[in-house]
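lol ok so funny story. i was supposed to be doing the assay writeup but got distracted and ended up predicting the structure for this chain instead. priorities right. anyway since i did it might as well share w the group, maybe its usefull for someone
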Amino acid sequence: MTEWFTTQKTIVMDRRKLLAGLAAGSVFAVSGCTTNPVTGRSQLIMVSEGQLAQLSASSWTQIKGKERLSRDPAYTGRVKRVAPRIVNAAGLGNKPWEFAVFDSDQINAFAMPGGKIGVYTGILDVMENDDQLATVLGHEVGHITGRHGQERYSQSMLAGVGMQTASVALASNDVAFSNELAAILGAGISFGVILPYARKHEYEADRVGLQYMARAGYDPHQSVRFWQNMMAKNQGRQKPPEFMSTHPSDSNRIAQLQKAIREMGA
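and the output, tada:
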C-alpha cells in the first residue's frame, strides 16, 4: 500500500522558505511499503514490473531501429560471453534476455526491465578486460533487481502531482510572479529529490553489481580500475556539479566502490 498527500498549510511566498519547505517535504510526502528482496530497502512502487517491461519493449524496438547494430565479433563476443554469467549470478537466468551491441562512440550501456541490455562500442573501447565489462553489466542488472526503473517512474509520477498541486496553490493565492516561483519549485523538486534519488540508485547498483560480478567469478577490484580509466578519460571535459547530475562524480564513486569491496572482504 502506498499513500501520498499534500500539506494544507498556506505557502509563504519567500524563496528561501519555499526551498527549505521543499527540502523538509512540505510540498508532498511519500511513504512506501514494498520491500526490495535484494536491497532490503523500502520502496515507493506505483507501476508494476510488467507495465514497465511493456514500455521498455517499445523503447528497445525504437532504439534498435535508430542505432546501428555492431556485427564485429570482437565486440559482440565479449558481451555474449560475459552477460549470461552476470544475469545467472543475479538469479535471472531463467528469464528471456536480449543483448545488443550498438556501433557508436557513445560511452554508455543500459538495461531495461523485461530483459534488455544494450552496450555501446564506445564504452567497450574503454574496458581492458572481461572483468571491467562485468563491472558495467553487473551495475546495469543491479538497476533491474533494485527496481530502480519502477522507483524512478513512480517518483516522477509523484513529482508531477506535487508540481500540479503547488501550481494550483500559487495561482489561487494570486501572488505576483507565481509562474517564476513555480519554476523555482520545479528546480527544487528536481535537484532536491529526483536527482539525489538517482545518485542513490547509482551507488546501490554499484554495490549490487559488485556482488554479481564476484559471484560470476570476476574480480571486483577491476571495478575500481574501470572507473579510474573513466575518470582519466573525463579529465578536461566540462561536467555539471554532482548535485545537478543524476550520477555521482567519478572520485566519489571510486571511494564508495573501494569501501564496498573492503566490506565484502574481497
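The longest strand covers residues 98-102. The chain has one domain: 3-264.
back to the writeup now i swear
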